[in-house]
Every structure is written in C-alpha cells, then in structure tokens.
C-alpha cells in the first residue's frame, strides 16, 4: 500500500513538472506571438522616431559638415549660442505669440460653430459639412487661397479695408501684421478639425440631461453654462492641447506665405529648424532647436496626460 | 425638444452667416479658377467662365504626375497604417504577454516626439538608404502610428472577448482570428482610420518637400508650391485651378466620411 | 463512467486571495450538472477553468480519465455556450454554425451533413442566411446551441445561457436545453445564478459561495436537507424561514426569536441540539393554515400577495420576516390575526456558529416526494 501511494505521489510530482514546463512554453509562445504582432510598429518607431530623436540630441552637441556628419564636439555651446541669439529668441517669442493668437480664437470659434450646428434643425448636416470642410483643405492650398486674399493690391481683404476708408494693409509684408496674417490663415485651417471633434463631444452628451433641465425650466444659456460646457470639458481639454501642439509644429503656411519674414517676424520654430538645417546646413544648431521643440511638446503632452484625466469632468 | 420659430430663425441666420464667412475663401478660389485673367486683374465679378486656367495648369505643369504620386503615396501610407495599427491594436487587446504594458507605454511615448523634432536625422536616414525621390522614402516612415493604434484599440475592446474564447475552443489561431473575425467586425473603425490616414497623407507638406528633389515622385502639395512660385506673378487663375485640383479628392472624401470621421476621432481621442 | 473529475482545484490571481478553494467533484457521463451560486462566487471561473480559458493554479482536472490541466481548449474536445452567445456579427447563421468545423478542417460534405441535421433539430433551417442582428433573442440562443451541438463534442459547458432572455422564453428554453441534452446524451456543466434554473434543470447541483463548495446533491436533497444556512436561504423560493431559537429549561418548548414558542417532546430532543446556539428553519409551505382546533399560533399578517393559485402571507417573527405559502385563494387582510399550525417535525436545525445543518426536517421526505 505504501508503495502504491509512493507511486501516486511520484506521479503527482512528475505531472506538476509537466504542467510547469507546459506553462513556461506557453508563456514564451504568447510572448513571441505578442512581439510578432507588434514588431512592425516597434521597428518603424525605432528607426524613424526613437533613433532620430536620440540622434538629434546627440547632434545638438556637435558642429557638423554640410552632409550632416559630426566634426567638432562643442558641448552646450549650440544651446548657449541659441539662447543668446536674438534671431532664435525672436523665433521663440513669435512661436509663443502665435500660440497665443491662434489657440483661444480657434477653440472659441469652433465651439460656437459646434454649438449652433448641434441643434436639431432641418439641413443642419449641410452646415456641418461646410464647417468641417477646411479639414479637407491642405496647407498648401489654404496658403494659396490666403496668399491671394492678403495680396496688397488686388486681395479681397484690402478691398474691404479700402472700401471702409482705411489705408491698405501690408498683410504679409508689414512686420506688425505678418504674424497676425499667418494666425488668421492657421485659425481658418484648424477650425475644420476642432469643430468636428467638439461636435462629436457635444453629441455624446446624454440627452436626458437636457430633458431633465427642460423639466426644471432651465433657459438656453443656463443649460449651455451648466450642462454643455462642463460635460464637454474633456473634449475641450483635448482640443486645446492638440491645437497648441499643432501650433508649435506649424510650417507649411509660413513656407508659402512669408518664408519667415518680414524681419524674422514669422520665423516660427519649425521653420527656423528647417532653415538652419536645410538652407544653412547648420545641423548641430538646428538639432539644438529641435531639442527645444521636443521639450516644449513633451511638456504639453505630459500636461495633457497628467491633467487630462483628473481636472476635467467625466460622466 | 421643440423650438419656437423665432429661435429657429436666429439659429438659421447664425448658421448661414458663419457658413458664408468660413466657406468664402474656398468659394473664391473655385470661382477664380474659372475666371479669365482679365477679370481677376481688374477685380471685377466674372463676366465669363472658362476652363483655360485648368488647361494651362495641366499643360505647363506635370499635374497628372503629381496627382498620381499623391494617390500612390496616400494609399500606401493608408494601407501601411491600417496593417500596422490593427496588428498592434490586436496585440494590446487580445494577447496577454509579459512586457505588454511596457510596450504600451512605449507607444504612448511616441506621441510625445513630434516628427518635426526628429526630421534632421530622418532626412539623413532616407538619404543614406538612397530613398530620396522614392515612394518608400515618402511613405514608410509614417506607417507606424500611435494615434491609429489607440483608435483601433478602443474599437477592438468593444468586441466581446467571448468571440475570442469561442474561437479558442473551436481551435482557431490568433492570426486567423485577427483576419477572419476582428478585421471584418471592426470594419467601420478601419474605414475611419483609413479616411483619416488618407487625408493627412494627402495634405503632408514638410516631408515631401525634403524627400523629393524632382518631379518623379513629388506630391501635388509640393507641386502646388512650385506652381505658385514659378507662375509669372499675376496668373492667379492658373494657381487657383491648381489649388482646386489639389483639394477636390480630399473634400470628396471628407464629405463622404464626415460622420464616421467625427465619431471615430472623438472615440480615439477621449476614451 | 466519470466524464469530468476535479481534484482539489484551486484558483488564485497573483497569489492573492483564493477565488476557488480546493474544489473536488466528479461528473458522470450523460449527467446534467449545475453550478449555482451568487455572483462572484467563482462558478464562472470554475467553468472557464474546465474549458481551458483560465489557468488552473493548483489541483488536477481530468476529462475522460486524462489529465488535461495543460491542454489548450481545442484539445479538450468540448463545446461552450456563452452568456452573450458569442455569435460572430459579420457571419450568417450558417457560417456561425460551421465556424468551428471549418477551423477543425472537417470535410465539406460532412459539414453540410451536420449543418442540415443540426439546423433541423434546432428549427433554424429557415434562418440560415440571416445575420445575428436580424434574429430575436431566442433565435440567437438557438444558434449558439446549434454551434455547440454541431461540434459533436461529448462535453458541453454553458455559462448562464438564458440570462439575456425574458422570463417566458427562459422557461421554454429550459425545457429545450434539457431535452436536447438527454437526446444527444451530452454531459452538461451548466452555470447559473438562478436557483430556479438549477432546481428545474439539474440532475445534480453544486452550490458554490465565496469559492467554497456549500453542497453537492440532487435538487430535492438540497431543498429538504440544506447542508448549511447558506444553502437553506439560497435554494427555494421564497427562501426558508429562519430564526434564532432557544429551548426552555425543561425542553418542553423551543422559543424562536424569543416570541414564537413551539411545543416539544423533551425526549425527542437529541443531545447534540442541546449545547449549541440554534437557528431553526421552516419552509413557507410548512406553515399551514390552522383550524380553530389545531392552530398552534395566532400571527398578525403584515403583507399579503395573491397569486391566484396560491397566497403568500408575511409575518414579523422577532427581527425576521417569515412567509407562509398557502395553496388557493384566501381572503385575508393586512393586520388580521390568523391561526396557523407550525409543527416540530418540519423544523430544520442549524448550528448558529458553524452554520452547519444539525438535523433536517423529519416530515419532509415522506410527505413531499411521491414515488411513482
């Protein structure tokens, strides 16, 4: 009897061992499977995002030749030069001003459009399509449209200005106006996307909330302030951060409308990087600027992740 | 909720005024593209409509080549993104393995790196691969996309996990389950992402500007810039004709997919 | 012959609290075995472990006398029906039914053969080209069953398959599933939280709570001799009336909740009832209506439910609410004091501390079960 039970115990143990091996094998198998599904993405991220970013940081400590190979290690000198260079400081200043000009106006206009386009009215679909249309218009096309509108002699805007009895404005050539003009173009271009997202946010608000407010006799603006805006806050927050990030990355409209001028007034950071790297072939200094851009965007995304979940009102 | 006629009227007025202001630049471009140069220069209303501007644009510039290139590039990027994002999203939703959460954070981290900030080494990589002026140089860097992965992940998560378990019991492997169940079931979100991918690729500007040096693979956006800078100063009709050609495919796509796009983007962004 | 055998099956996540604790049981071939318990009791986890969808932390699982702990679901030769049916929304009914056969690479001819047979059996022949969203809840349920039937696996697992159906349909499907199982000779393991389903369908039932087996047995055994207070209150509707009880010093009376004295024969009180804190239980149908002469108590009615074929009455007994179920229609109003008859042979005795059954009702079996 004791032999039989010994055998049983042994059998039990060997089974345990088999289970363990099988489990381990399965774990390895599922790991490999997971990696296989993810490997295309990971590979491309590594080659075209992570490595270039690290390489950018590396390059920012060097001087380079025209082909981009490093020549002299200069430590922080590129950064020191940047932050003592009036051109770069001006570029930073313009970038922040640009963010300040574009983001609030874009969001407010889009919100207004989303609110009026969210009413259940006949034909509202047509208006929604119109409002979102600028999302389908590329930077290049939009810039060309506005290039004509800003045209000093035959542009539509100056026609209006002159009809109103003012002096013609050098929209793109007057340093006082150039950044404003770029901002107007950008706002117009961004409205399509922000409108679409905000409309989606509005439509996901439960209609019961409005119905119960109606029963309580709440007015239109009361509902807007007490239900719509708070319930929309996650969407608003998302839209604001995305618009800010986009503003930091602005390039095309500047390349077509002003090429950074006049007097570097519209030399926003990405354009500044582009010019430094691909016109002046100063890859080290351009990389240092790219690192600054990276840090700015990193901060914005970090803020979005950190406060995006908590500060806003979820259902 | 019912609305009084007065209130309705106010909304219609607001809607109409906003639509006119917003659509004015596009409308203006459209009209100008059919106007004679004479009318444009004198600033008058169109006295006659003509297709000359379009003819001139196509004659003087390889617009067909540009359009073709843009289609190829946009469709390649769209397909690449759909494949890579859906594979990755599948792994994050349906597979359990060690290191998955870590890799998820890696994907999140990619959203913190703007492509513009890494553009210098990227240009060097493409150059060293001899990919300048090639379709692969214009497309492959954009195949992997965190936003698209998250968007699909949200949608895949709505597929009941019992479907996977039923397949497991039936003895179906992961790749077949991905192909025959997940992709067809999540069709709508794939369309959304496809539309989004096509739109953004079609409208890409900075990268095609750097990665093309001649007309062989140059996209229509850069072509438009060429048109604008090379065209003798005041031939606006031709420039506008070019711009209209550039925006027509994306506008059509947007009008068709607006509802899906709106729902998809809100979901991917917020949940 | 044992189809499924569980030996000390244990489940825990991340070495935390055990979700299932040393579950041992064996299920016979052709048996309809029901796992019942409240939500969170671990019954679904147990089923999923048998299916191979969850890892077994500890213990041995045998199917057909073969240890299968380490085998993936497809090698366990079983079928499963899910609560939400798990129908593929993009496939037609036909494709859904054939899904598993295609994955297993069964020949085309045989696929069609089995499809025809199954569809006929389940009354789905007319619906084969429809998509799941074009089907009613009951039809979807049938497709899910068909998918299980067509696989011809000898062991079928069901995870609350009826909980998404309305009450009327559910009653129908109970009968259908039961008939199907008998006809095909399937071994069935059926998970539900609904004790009525468990009682009406199961050959045997296992009551599970907090990952621990409360009792395994035939439905009638669980009803008449609940092993502990949990089973007593879980099985049966309305639940068994329970109350704390104490013997008078001379053992001539048992006083329930301090207010309801029951006459006892002191000689019949066994020793093991004397030294423990008692809880007694009595089924609602065992509180009979009393005639003037044989009434033992007069109780004030606090609620009346007229169901037509029977009448349910509620009384306050100390801190407990007791119910009585009388067949037929009774004109009784809330506030009436009515005569009832409660007799000692219908009482179940439990230990209040360990909650275990000490003595089942003696009158139970002889009266309730009528052998034919």
Automatic annotation (TrEMBL), chain A:
<feature type="transmembrane region" description="Helical">
    <location>
        <begin position="179"/>
        <end position="202"/>
    </location>
</feature>
<feature type="transmembrane region" description="Helical">
    <location>
        <begin position="229"/>
        <end position="248"/>
    </location>
</feature>
<keyword id="KW-0812">Transmembrane</keyword>
<dbReference type="GO" id="GO:0005886">
    <property type="term" value="C:plasma membrane"/>
</dbReference>
<dbReference type="InterPro" id="IPR000515">
    <property type="entry name" value="MetI-like"/>
</dbReference>
<feature type="transmembrane region" description="Helical">
    <location>
        <begin position="30"/>
        <end position="51"/>
    </location>
</feature>
<comment type="similarity">
    <text>Belongs to the binding-protein-dependent transport system permease family.</text>
</comment>
<dbReference type="InterPro" id="IPR051393">
    <property type="entry name" value="ABC_transporter_permease"/>
</dbReference>
<dbReference type="GO" id="GO:0055085">
    <property type="term" value="P:transmembrane transport"/>
</dbReference>
<keyword id="KW-0472">Membrane</keyword>
<feature type="transmembrane region" description="Helical">
    <location>
        <begin position="286"/>
        <end position="305"/>
    </location>
</feature>
<protein>
    <submittedName>
        <fullName>Sugar ABC transporter permease</fullName>
    </submittedName>
</protein>
<dbReference type="InterPro" id="IPR035906">
    <property type="entry name" value="MetI-like_sf"/>
</dbReference>
<feature type="transmembrane region" description="Helical">
    <location>
        <begin position="96"/>
        <end position="117"/>
    </location>
</feature>
<dbReference type="Pfam" id="PF00528">
    <property type="entry name" value="BPD_transp_1"/>
</dbReference>
Automatic annotation (TrEMBL), chain B:
<keyword id="KW-0813">Transport</keyword>
<feature type="transmembrane region" description="Helical">
    <location>
        <begin position="9"/>
        <end position="35"/>
    </location>
</feature>
<feature type="transmembrane region" description="Helical">
    <location>
        <begin position="138"/>
        <end position="156"/>
    </location>
</feature>
<dbReference type="GO" id="GO:0055085">
    <property type="term" value="P:transmembrane transport"/>
</dbReference>
<feature type="transmembrane region" description="Helical">
    <location>
        <begin position="71"/>
        <end position="95"/>
    </location>
</feature>
<dbReference type="InterPro" id="IPR035906">
    <property type="entry name" value="MetI-like_sf"/>
</dbReference>
<dbReference type="Pfam" id="PF00528">
    <property type="entry name" value="BPD_transp_1"/>
</dbReference>
<feature type="transmembrane region" description="Helical">
    <location>
        <begin position="177"/>
        <end position="199"/>
    </location>
</feature>
<keyword id="KW-1003">Cell membrane</keyword>
<keyword id="KW-0812">Transmembrane</keyword>
<dbReference type="GO" id="GO:0005886">
    <property type="term" value="C:plasma membrane"/>
</dbReference>
<comment type="similarity">
    <text>Belongs to the binding-protein-dependent transport system permease family.</text>
</comment>
<feature type="domain" description="ABC transmembrane type-1">
    <location>
        <begin position="67"/>
        <end position="257"/>
    </location>
</feature>
<protein>
    <submittedName>
        <fullName>Carbohydrate ABC transporter permease</fullName>
    </submittedName>
</protein>
<keyword id="KW-0472">Membrane</keyword>
From TrEMBL, chain C:
<dbReference type="GO" id="GO:0140359">
    <property type="term" value="F:ABC-type transporter activity"/>
</dbReference>
<keyword id="KW-0813">Transport</keyword>
<dbReference type="InterPro" id="IPR008995">
    <property type="entry name" value="Mo/tungstate-bd_C_term_dom"/>
</dbReference>
<dbReference type="InterPro" id="IPR015855">
    <property type="entry name" value="ABC_transpr_MalK-like"/>
</dbReference>
<dbReference type="GO" id="GO:0008643">
    <property type="term" value="P:carbohydrate transport"/>
</dbReference>
<protein>
    <submittedName>
        <fullName>ABC transporter ATP-binding protein</fullName>
    </submittedName>
</protein>
<dbReference type="InterPro" id="IPR027417">
    <property type="entry name" value="P-loop_NTPase"/>
</dbReference>
<keyword id="KW-0472">Membrane</keyword>
<dbReference type="InterPro" id="IPR017871">
    <property type="entry name" value="ABC_transporter-like_CS"/>
</dbReference>
<dbReference type="InterPro" id="IPR012340">
    <property type="entry name" value="NA-bd_OB-fold"/>
</dbReference>
<dbReference type="GO" id="GO:0005524">
    <property type="term" value="F:ATP binding"/>
</dbReference>
<dbReference type="InterPro" id="IPR003593">
    <property type="entry name" value="AAA+_ATPase"/>
</dbReference>
<feature type="domain" description="ABC transporter">
    <location>
        <begin position="4"/>
        <end position="235"/>
    </location>
</feature>
<keyword id="KW-0067">ATP-binding</keyword>
<dbReference type="InterPro" id="IPR047641">
    <property type="entry name" value="ABC_transpr_MalK/UgpC-like"/>
</dbReference>
